[in-house]
Amino acid sequence: MEQSLTPGYAAALAAHDNNATPTKKIWQVITASSVGTVIEWYDFYIFGSLATIIATQFFPKTNPLAALLSTLAAFAVGFVVRPFGAVVFGRIGDMVGRKYTFLLTLLLMGGATFAIGLIPNYASIGVMAPVLVFTLRVVQGLALGGEYGGATTYVAEHAPDDRRGYYTSFIQTTATIGLFVSIAVLVGTRLAVGDAAFKEWGWRVPFLLSSVLLLASYIIRRRLNESPLFEKAKQEGTVSTSPLRDSFVEPENRRLVLLALFGATMGQGVVWYTGQFYAYFFLQTVLKLEQIPASIILCVALLAATPFFVYFGGLSDRIGRKRIIMTGMLCGVLFTFPIFYGLTQYAGAAVEKTAAVPATVDAAGAVVAAVPAVMVAHDYHLVPMIALVFCLVLFVTMVYGPIAAYLVELFPTKVRYTSLSVPYHIGNGIFGGLVPLISTALVAYAASQPGGFLKQHSIYFGLVYPVTIAAICFLYGSAKMKDVRNVKLMN
């Protein structure tokens, strides 16, 4: 016999159907979803931010470039497996429920991050060190593959139709906030323990701190109820018994999945990771800025640009998702090369400065001549570099702010978790997540050439990959995407 809806679910569903979901309830949903997602992005990005140190800890030191590329490969593998996590956890989310699925992904992500902080280095356990790192990165990637779709779907299924872009845009801020928090913790730890101690053991602290953040987030998420639309589907018996078949075999839904990938998420992924992660990597690895000034540049730019996620999400409720997403993507295509060229110019050159050192007297009483201390400093210009990175992040907010609402509105409730998650994580996990690895390899290739234009401009050659992908996505999306907005979500 069919069960009736519980009073709480019935009230939530009635409110949703009337587009009158209480504001307080929506903010509870957004807070609980966003806090957990911030933590998961924090967990994911501390690994990438520590790439140069991890290369020395978990890989042989005989070839520094190979060790760095291996570390970036370990970082990339977490992205590559994200679509598989989307398949696994999307299926669970569409069959069992949104709430319990993203509780599970949270625990897996937090547990894997904590464990990375405990792995002995290569000198202690040899090849098992990189093996364990790769294994835990796979777990992180699988968990993250199930996280975004659950959080976005959960918020969207509570939000009123005419403000879906605005409310889901708060989920879009979580990746940026997670990156910002990870950088703040890294810099704070480095300042607290000193540079030498940080490289020896202090780098483990941000990984271990994730356990505290995990516990707080888990407690908050446990208090959530299930999505009213999903609960209704369960009660009516319309939940999909085979989300994978319904998502990828049914022709119309498969067409929408491919449109989401090649028309939106593929380009969004490369714009995102170029503007936020690769820019940070470029400042430190290519331009040789110290971590603290590089972090100041990125963090100030992120703080200034983050409100625009919400602005463009809300704007998409009024003028449509497509034109904002496509404009941001086109800006990425046109201005990425000039902006990175500007960063190089304003970074200046490494300048050697000498400091006077007084003469000393040795044990025998002889005067020992002073040898001036040589210090190397970067003659960078902070404000224009912040402005340039801000422009990169602004393009990200245009592409990323409205995209959650766009993806949610494409698919019906019974397969929304799976159908949304897979193209998102292929676009972000594979096309976007591979930006650091592919770009670094392209730079190394260009630098190895005997001479000419390619070698002279080799530090920018890595940008060919993200700009090309964004251009392809812009052309396909402009031709194929429809600007649907503020519609009632399909059952």
Q: How many β-strand stretches?
A: 4
Largest sheet at a glance? 2 strands, antiparallel
Shape: globular
What's the CATH class, please? Mainly Alpha
Compute the number of helices: 23
CATH architecture: Up-down Bundle
Strand neighbour order, sheet with most strands? 1-4
Describe the structure.
The protein is mostly helical. The chain has one domain (7-357, 365-480): Up-down Bundle (Growth Hormone, Chain: A). Helix content is 75%, strand content 3%. The strands form two sheets. Strands 1-4 form a two-stranded antiparallel sheet. The protein has a two-stranded antiparallel ribbon with strand order 2-3. Strand 2 (360-361) and strand 3 form a beta hairpin. The protein is globular and about 65 Å long.
Short description:
The chain is mostly helical. Helix content is 75%, strand content 3%.
SSE layout:
Elements: H1 7-17, H2 23-49, H3 51-58, H4 64-80, H5 82-95, H6 98-116, H7 122-125, H8 128-156, H9 164-193, H10 195-202, H11 204-222, H12 228-236, H13 243-248, H14 251-286, H15 291-305, H16 307-319, H17 321-347, E1 350-355, E2 360-361, E3 367-368, E4 373-378, H18 382-400, H19 403-410, H20 416-432, H21 435-447, H22 453-456, H23 464-480
Antiparallel strand pairs: 1-4, 2-3
